[in-house]
Amino acid sequence: MKNMEKELLCPVCQEMYKQPLVLPCTHNVCQACAREVLGQQGYIGHGGDPSSEPTSPASTPSTRSPRLSRRTLPKPDRLDRLLKSGFGTYPGRKRGALHPQVIMFPCPACQGDVELGERGLAGLFRNLTLERVVERYRQSVSVGGAILCQLCKPPPLEATKGCTECRATFCNECFKLFHPWGTQKAQHEPTLPTLSFRPKGLMCPDHKEEVTHYCKTCQRLVCQLCRVRRTHSGHKITPVLSAYQALKDKLTKSLTYILGNQDTVQTQICELEETVRHTEVSGQQAKEEVSQLVRGLGAVLEEKRASLLQAIEECQQERLARLSTQLQEHRSLLDGSGLVGYAQEVLKETDQPCFVQAAKQLHNRIARATEALQTFRPAASSSFRHCQLDVGREMKLLTELNFLRVPEAPVIDTQRTFAYDQIFLCWRLPPHSPPAWHYTVEFRRTDVPAQQGPTRWQRREEVRGTSALLENPDTGSVYVLRVRGCNKAGYGEYSEDVHLHTPPAPVLHFFLDGRWGASRERLAISKDQRAVRSVPGLPLLLAAERLLTGCHLSVDVVLGDVAVTQGRSYWACAVDPASYLVKVGVGLESKLQESFQGAPDVISPRYDPDSGHDSGAEDATVEASPPFAFLTIGMGKILLGSGASANAGLTGRDGPAASCTVPLPPRLGICLDYERGRVSFLDAVSFRGLLECPLDCSGPVCPAFCFIGGGAVQLQEPVGTKPERKVTIGGFAKLD
Question: Is the pTM of this model over 0.90?
Fold first, then answer.
């Protein structure tokens, strides 16, 4: 008990609790401290608790009004009449107040504002349990010394008794004086002297009744009267005994777990202490590194300052030398000095040959001096504007100089992330995130059986760019992926986990081959042979006018250049939602060639597009598996016909599919199980099953796409290396 003193300190006064109140945020604060805080917040008249009992001897029952001691609680039948008549307001509330004042209290423990309601502190419970713990702690450590009598004249004597009814401590003489024989006070039972008097039980602050129930919805103790108020109507209320037992069991269980794992606590304490030491050392190293870097910046600046000053000094000396020479030349032009004086003396020469000899060189100098005098200009400029520095960018950089921040958690682009033959993961950094030098991608399977235990994260280190390719994933599995960035400051936070379903079977790579049943006039196959578009053109429009007069419309078919002869295969494609009528599926190679070599008459009564070749089988009496399995798509919908489900054996998750239409997903998946003779149509995004039907697999089976009217189909590109296009002559290439 001696080590728990900090749990008993008020967060406001930092002293042991005195009459603590429980705030709505479950923190505690002294009642006097709460009044002071509310007063500082400007709430006048709400700091006191009218329901609180007095603590000073001056307000003991002996000095209060006799009317208060004779006041009795209303009878239950009268209280029921008051409640039914609408007089349900509690004391202190103004009747008819439309906008009552809501008091906010700044909790010093959680640093947040909590709402006290209209009544302020009067609506809070006292924490009697905490008061008892504080009193036991004081007695165990002998805090505060002797308790003095509150009614003695100075100097007071040491108290020997206490009275719960009078809420005061007495010496022997004062107790006899204030509890005279033959009066009602003589029946008060003396107790040990204490500084904190508590009521016998926890009382409801609204009705002054003993609390008997606990409202789980409001998480508040309530009395019998609180239960009938509309405030708790419809709430889950239990007896306080049940709440006591449940909470005590939880607390006991948690405490038992903590006490039973003291070794773990001690290990974690040692780890934290080691972390504290490392933090101190690392912080000192960081300080030294920053100081060294700043000193380095200062040294670079000082070196740069010296070089710039040296350049200015050299420029200045050069200019001064040129100006000094020019100044001397001009001073020599003054009368009687320098060049002018020498010329004046030469002019005095009378010997003509000698004059010519001396005056020739002198004349050149005089001519240059005369020209310089006429076109005077200083030999050098006195301005040093070219030596000014523009340090705006550098000052901005120095101002923005700050510690490196790790990259923020990347955002995975779910529109571009998908799983096909391989997993393609794409992400981006938030707009204001520091840049990342490289990334770490982690992934693992989540559908592993529980007996095998959780799988470990697999990691791809130092991924450059904002995308990654995860090769050779397991088929029919669920992978969870995450990514985080790294720079010089370290690793950032992980992105949110993304779950991806892999295809249920190995991906079949093939190209489109339009040689069987394809019309070059109506079908346009892309150069890479992975997309096809049906363009009906004018013939179909003309046929639409003669639709009731027996016109003929052909079915155009495009097959894959690869046939399956064993195992399980999966492929996906996207159908244009604006397509008029498109059939996607598989079929026997021989039957497809026989059926689509010519142009069937889709208007003639002899032609049945669902005659055992697709999801509309002929009738339920045919037990043999059909040679075709097609899914019909038209105008952005998938048609699940009743005939298809009943006759061809198409079944969904809930048994035979009813005649209905479902929206067309962005991509369709086809899964072929050759050994079982079954084909499944899936939503290639969520891998939700759409249809499953039997298929005759007595020979090679190949993908097929049929068009009636306009439409377009795009095969899903493989994530990895694109396969080389196979050229076949006289038949399909077989995939073994």
Answer: no
Distance in angstroms (rounded) separating the CA atoms of residues 190 and 256: 38
Residue 477, token pair as written in the block: 């599995």
268 φ, ψ (degrees, to nearest 5): -70, -35
**pLDDT-derived band at 16, boundaries 50, 70, 90:** confident
CB half-sphere exposure, 663, CA atoms < 13 A: 2
Structure tokens at 408: 């923020």
Q: Is residue 226 exposed (0-12), middle (13-18) or buried (19+ Cβ within 10 Å)?
A: buried
Model pLDDT for residues 504-541, shown as the tens digit of each residue: 999 999 998 866 655 667 788 888 889 999 886 555 55
Q: What are phi and psi of 234, to 5 degrees?
A: 80, 0
Q: C-alpha angle 587/589/592, rounded to 5°?
A: 65
d(CA 471, CA 455): 18
Q: Is the dihedral of CA 284, 290, 294, 295 positive or negative?
A: positive
**Residue 663: cis peptide before it, omega within 30 degrees of 0:** no
State the Cα–Cα distance between residues 343 and 336, nearest whole angstrom. 9
Distances 96 to 85, 93, 99, 102, 232 between C-alpha atoms, Å = 15, 9, 9, 16, 21
The DSSP call for residue 381 is -
Give dist(CA 514, CA 41) in Å, integer.
83
What is the rounded CA–CA span in Å between residue 181 and residue 187?
A: 9
φ and ψ at residue 11, rounded to 5 degrees = -70, -10
Residue 731, amino acid? G
Match 């009268």 to its residue by tokens: 78
Question: For 267-296, what is each residue's pLDDT tens digit?
Answer: 999 999 999 999 999 999 999 999 999 999
Q: What is the pLDDT of residue 47?
A: 53
Distance between CA atoms of 624 and 643, rounded to whole angstroms?
16
**Whole-angstrom Cα distance, residue 524 to residue 115?**
71
Handedness of CA 165, 166, 167, 172 (dihedral sign): negative
Element spanning 406, H or E: none
**Residues 575, 579, 580, 584: what is their CA dihedral angle, to the nearest 10 degrees?**
-20
Q: Residue 416: how many CA atoms within 13 Å on its side-chain side?
A: 11
Query: CB–CB of 411/430 below 8 Å?
Result: yes
| φ, ψ at 662 (rounded to 5°) | -125, 155
Longest dimension (CA), the chain: 161
What distance in Å separates the CA atoms of residue 92 and residue 695, rounded to the nearest whole number? 83
Amino acid letter for position 35: R
> With left for phi above 0 and alpha for psi between -120 and 50, is residue 181 left, alpha or beta?
beta
Q: Supply the mean pLDDT for the chain.
A: 78
The DSSP symbol for 60 reads S
Length of the chain: 736
CA distance 391 to 372: 41
Cα→Cα distances 114→36, 107, 123, 279, Å? 16, 7, 13, 35
Q: Give 554's DSSP letter.
A: P
Q: Average pLDDT for residues 588-593, to the nearest whole number? A: 82
- Location of structure tokens 């032609």: 607
Task: Report how far residue 555's alpha carbon sits from residue 557's, in angstroms, rounded to the nearest whole number.
Answer: 6
Residues 196, 19 contacting (CB under 8 angstroms): yes
Distances (CA, A) of 233 to 119, 237, 243, 261: 21, 10, 19, 43
**Whether the Cβ atoms of residue 693 and residue 679 lie closer than 8 Å to each other:** yes
Closest-CA residue to 172 (of 182, 162, 181, 164): 162
Flag whether pLDDT at 497 surpasses 90.
Answer: yes
Predicted pLDDT at 545: 54
pLDDT at position 196 is: 66
* 186-206 tens-digit pLDDT: 888 888 777 666 666 677 877
| pLDDT, position 69 | 39
